[in-house]
Amino acid sequence: MKYPYILFDLDGTLIDTNELILQSFEHTLELFFPGRFTRQDVLPYMGEPLVTQFSRWASAEQVPLLVDTYRKFNVENHDRLVTIFPNVLESITELKQQGCKMAVVTSKMRLTAMMGLRLFGLDRFMDTVITIEDTDKHKPDPAPLLLAMDQLEADPGRTLMVGDSPFDILGGQAAGTSTCGVAWSLRGPEGLAPYNPKYLIDDMRELLSILRR
To answer: What pLDDT, in 10s, does the model give residues 152-173?
Structure first.
C-alpha cells in the first residue's frame, strides 16, 4: 500500500460544516459589528484558528468575547447544519478494512471535533484525533501533523495529508508528507492548485485508487 497512514482535515474535508461556520461568523460579527461584514469577508480565512481569524477584525480585548459567542452558536446549531460529504463514510470504511491507520488533524476544539465525528460514526475509524488544544502551533505549521504521525508511529514518506485548505497542503508539505487536496472545497480546485498538492481529487473514492497505485 502506497500510503498506510492518512491524516484528514475535518471541516470541509470529511464533513460539510461550511454553512455552520459561515452562519456562526455571521451571527457573531453582526452582533458585535452590525452591518460591517458578510460571509465574503470570512471565506479567505476559513481553516485558520478562530483567534487568528477574529484578530483580523477585532481588538485583543474583544476577541475572547467573539470566540465565546461563535462557539455557543456553533454548538447549539451543530447537528442541524452539519452534513457528511458524499462517499466519505464508505471510503473511510474501506480504508480501515485495508489496514490504513488514520487520524484527524483539525484546528477545532475537541468538543466540536468529536461532535462532528460522532454524528456520522466516523470516530470509530480514527486511531487518533489532534485538535487545537493539543499543540501550541497550528496548521500550516507542521506541529499538529507531526504529533499525529508520532501517535500513529507513521513514516512521513508513507503518509498522506488530505484537506480542503491551503493550510492543510502547506502543513503537509512542511511535515514531509504527500498531500491531497479535495475539489469540493469552498475554494474549489483553483483555490488549492497554486499550493501544488500532489493529488487533487473530486470524490473521496479516488483515495482508494491512489493507495493502489
So the answer is: 999 999 999 999 999 999 999 9
Distance CA 85, CA 171 (A): 23
Convert the pLDDT of each residue in 118-127 to its tens digit: 999 999 999 9
Annotation marks residue 9 as catalytic: yes
* Lowest-confidence segment of 44-48, 71-75, 102-106, 112-116 by average pLDDT: 44-48
Domains of the chain by start residue, with CATH: 5-16+83-212 (3.40.50.1000), 18-81 (1.10.150)
Catalytic residue among 9, 11, 16, 164: 9
